[in-house]
Input
Amino acid sequence: MMDNKPRMAITMRPWLILSLVTVLALLVNLPIFLVVFNSFQSTDDILAARSLIPRNFSLVNYLYLGERTRFWTFLGNSVIVAICSTMLGMVAAVLAGYALSRFQGPLLGAYAKSLFAIQMFPIIMALIPLFVLFRSLDLINSPYAICVIYALINLPFATSMARSYFDTIPRELEEAAWIDGASDIGAFMRVVLPLSGPGLAAITIFSFLFSYNEYLIANVFLRKDDTLTLPVGIQMFMAQYSNDWGSLMAAATLTVLPTLMLFLLAQKFITPGGLSGSIKG
Output
């Protein structure tokens, strides 16, 4: 009988940990659940409700978004801008990070130090000069302008992340590829990049989320309704004396879907231990 108690405690411990983690996850994500639930009821029902779970579910808010607003245009603009800026920044960050990781020199050292200095520079101080520059280039109300700005803002941090991850990849793998006849570019493309999945996935998620959620720069450079991104376009649901809370909840629910899909796609690349045993034997 004395031996059964420790065994029961060991058996129950995983269930207790799982229950605790589940409760904490529900509490942390409670605001998200409330937004989703409230998106299925009108604004009047939201203001009059006294319970967390709505009683009358309705699709009126989603129908309103599709029929009487330009929500899908805003969503498309945000997705296009986020994808383009992420791809542009990723190419530059990966190449710069690899160069900083594998080569040394005074010029590269100065560039690496300048990355940290640029990160401390507040972007709001550069908005007016950038606006004047892009206006002279006729790029105001153009997604190309904010794509370039977003890529440049993400570049210092993305380059630092790429360099840190490339430092963890053994150089012996590239040397083995060179012995097999691969060129420098071939070793980078066939050996280093495939092993950089977790690092590249993390950089992609960070860059995409920043570009997808950014408001200030988009509000300055985009003024026409057909060019607005989601953070700027959603503010139209807020008036001076009243807010359309039902439409806001529905828009917020649909806004989460692209980022959720990105996390699901990138999840398989974020796997630990991909380099373990790669140079053993």
